[in-house]
Write a structure and sequence with these properties.
This protein is α/β, with parallel strands linked by helices. 60% of the residues lie in helices and 9% in strands.
C-alpha cells in the first residue's frame, strides 16, 4: 500500500541530502514535493494542507545539531508528523475486568468483515493468548453463518450461531455462551449493506445497546481511498467507533485512506489486513508504519512474523550445524519453507530498511517466491543420502531429480551451488573469528539447556556431549 509513496519520499530526501544544508528555499521545495506525493497517494486535501503547514513550521525552526546533517533533521520532522497524523502512540484494546471483552465488528458489505473477524480471532489466540468466541450476527447475507463456521474450524475457534432470530438477542445469548465455555473475548460479526442506511444503523445501534461492547471496530476497504474515509465518518457519527481495521492493504491501494482516517475521524487504525490468508493481519503501530512510509523498513514487525513461524529450537540446531559445517540440504529446505510461511518476498523486503531505494530491476533480481518453491521441490525429490551429502549427486542423479521435481538440470545445479556457497561464506566468517565465537556461545547455551533437561529427566548425557 505504501510502496509508491515510500519511493517518492526516498527521492525527496535524497535530493535534500545533496544540497548539504537546509535553507528556506530548499525546505519549500521539499515540502512542495511532499505535498505532491501525499496528493498522488489520495490523501484528503484538508489533511495534506494541515500536514505540510506543520512540517514547514517545524522545519524552519530546526536548530543545527553538530554532527547531524540538516537533511536528516528534516526527515525526522516529517517522520514525527506522519506518526502523529496516523495515530501517535499505539492504542491498546480496552480489556474487560469482568467477564469477556466484547469487540463489535461493523462495516459495509464486501469490505472483508467476516474474514477479518476470523483473522482477528486467530491473532488474539496466537499472539495475545486469548480464548475467543466468534458470533455469527449477520443473518442478512446468504451463507454468512456458514462462512464463519468454516473459518472457525480452520483456526480452531468456536462459533456461536442461530438459525433465524434477531441479531441483538443472538449477541446477548452468545455472551452467556462465552461465559459457559470460558471464552474471554467475544467477536461480533454483524451485518453490512452495500451502502449506509437507517435500517442497518438502527440494527447496529440495537446490538451495541444490548451487548455493551468494549470496542466497536469499523472494517474498511483500503482500495476505496477517500470513499473509505467518507464511510468511516458516517459510521462514527452513529456508532462512535473506537477503532478502524483496514483490509486489502496488500493491493494497489495508494495509502490515502490510512493517512487520512485518523485525522478526519479522530479514531485510530488498530489492524491492517495484508493478504487473503488468515494469518495475514498486522497490528497497526503508528511509529513503525511511519518508518515504512518513509522507506525505513519495519524490522520489529519482521521479527514478530519470524517468531510466529520459526521453531526456535530447530533454528538453533540448524545454525549450529551450519557453523560446524554439517548444514544439510534438509536444513536449507527448512529455511526456505520458513521464509515462504512469513509471506511474499515483496512484503518481507518492504520491511527492510533501504529497499525503497531499489529500482524495479534490482527488485526483480532478488530471490522470488517461485524460485524458492522450485528449490524446495528439488530438495524434496532427493534421497536422504543426497540431501545429507550433495557431493554424491552426479549428472545421472541430477537428471532424475529434475524429472521428479518438474524442474531442469540447471535448477538442480543452482540448488547444490547455493548450498555450497552458503557453507563457504560461513567458513570465511569463522576464519575471521567473530562467527566462531558466536557459534561457540550458541553451542554452550544449547548444551546448558540440554544439561538442565537431562538432569530433570535423570538420564545420561555423556553420549550427547560426545556428538
Amino acid at each position: 500500500m505504501f510502496d509508491a509513496i515510500a519511493q517518492r519520499f526516498s527521492s525527496i530526501f535524497s535530493g535534500l541530502g545533496r544540497s548539504g544544508r537546509l535553507t528556506e528555499k530548499n525546505i519549500d521545495e521539499g515540502i512542495k514535493e511532499v505535498r505532491k506525493a501525499l496528493l498522488e497517494a489520495d490523501v484528503n486535501l484538508k489533511v495534506v494542507r494541515r500536514f505540510v503547514d506543520e512540517v514547514r513550521e517545524k522545519a524552519l525552526g530546526i536548530e543545527t545539531i553538530r554532527g547531524v546533517r540538516p537533511a536528516d533533521q528534516f526527515v525526522k520532522v516529517v517522520q514525527d508528523e506522519i506518526t502523529t497524523l496516523i495515530g501517535g502512540e499505539e492504542t491498546r484494546i480496552r480489556w474487560s475486568d469482568r467477564g469477556p471483552t466484547v469487540i463489535m465488528m461493523v462495516g459495509l458489505q464486501g469490505t472483508g468483515k467476516t474474514t477479518t473477524t476470523a483473522k482477528l480471532a486467530r491473532f488474539l489466540k496466537k499472539r495475545e493468548g486469548k480464548n475467543p468466541l466468534m458470533v455469527a450476527a449477520d443473518v442478512q447475507r446468504p451463507a454468512a453463518i456458514e462462512q464463519l463456521k468454516v473459518l472457525g474450524r480452520q483456526i480452531d475457534v468456536p462459533v456461536y450461531f442461530e438459525d433465524g432470530g434477531r441479531p441483538p438477542k443472538i449477541c446477548r445469548r452468545a455472551m452467556k455462551k462465552a461465559t459457559e465455555l470460558g471464552c474471554d473475548v467475544v467477536l461480533l460479526d454483524t451485518a453490512g449493506r452495500l451502502h449506509i442506511d437507517d435500517q442497518l444503523m438502527d440494527e447496529l445501534e440495537d446490538i451495541r445497546d444490548k451487548a455493551n461492547p468494549q470496542e466497536i471496530w469499523l472494517v474498511v476497504d483500503a482500495m476505496l481511498g477517500q470513499d473509505a474515509v467518507t464511510s468511516a465518518v458516517e459510521f462514527n457519527q452513529r456508532l462512535d467507533v473506537s477503532g478502524v481495521v483496514l483490509t486489502k492493504a496488500d493491493g494497489d491501494a495508494r495509502g490515502g485512506a490510512a493517512l487520512s482516517i485518523r485525522e478526519v475521524t479522530g479514531k485510530p487504525i488498530r489492524y491492517v489486513g495484508v493478504g487473503e490468508k488468515l494469518d495475514k493481519l498486522e497490528k497497526f503501530v503508528p511509529e513503525r508504519m511511519a518508518q515504512r512510509i518513509l522507506g525505513m523498513g519495519d524490522v520489529v514487525s519482521l521479527v514478530e512474523q519470524a517468531q510466529e513461524v520459526v521453531d526456535q529450537e530447530k533454528a538453533e540446531e540448524a545454525a549450529e550445524r551450519l557453523f560446524m559445517s554439517r548444514f544439510t540440504l534438509d536444513d536449507m529446505r527448512d529455511q526456505f519453507e520458513a521464509v515462504l510461511k512469513m509471506g511474499s518476498m515483496k512484503d518481507l523486503l518492504s520491511k527492510l530498511p533501504g529497499t525503497a531505494d531499489l529500482s524495479q530491476d534490482q527488485m526483480d533480481q532478488m530471490p522470488q517466491d517461485q524460485d524458492m518453491r522450485r528449490m524446495v521441490a528439488v530438495i524434496q525429490s532427493m534421497t536422504p543420502e543426497e540431501r545429507s551429502d550433495p557431493k554424491v549427486i552426479h549428472m545421472q542423479r541430477r537428471h532424475r531429480i529434475a524429472r521428479g521435481s518438474g524442474t531442469s538440470v540447471n535448477t538442480v545445479g543452482e540448488v547444490i551451488k547455493a548450498h555450497k556457497e552458503m557453507n563457504k561464506q560461513v567458513k570465511q566468517l569463522k576464519n575471521q573469528g567473530l562467527m566462531g565465537r558466536m557459534a561457540e556461545k550458541a553451542m554452550n547455551r544449547r548444551k546448558a539447556k540440554r544439561l538442565k533437561k537431562h538432569k530433570r529427566d535423570g538420564t545420561d548425557i555423556k553420549g550427547w556431549f560426545r556428538r
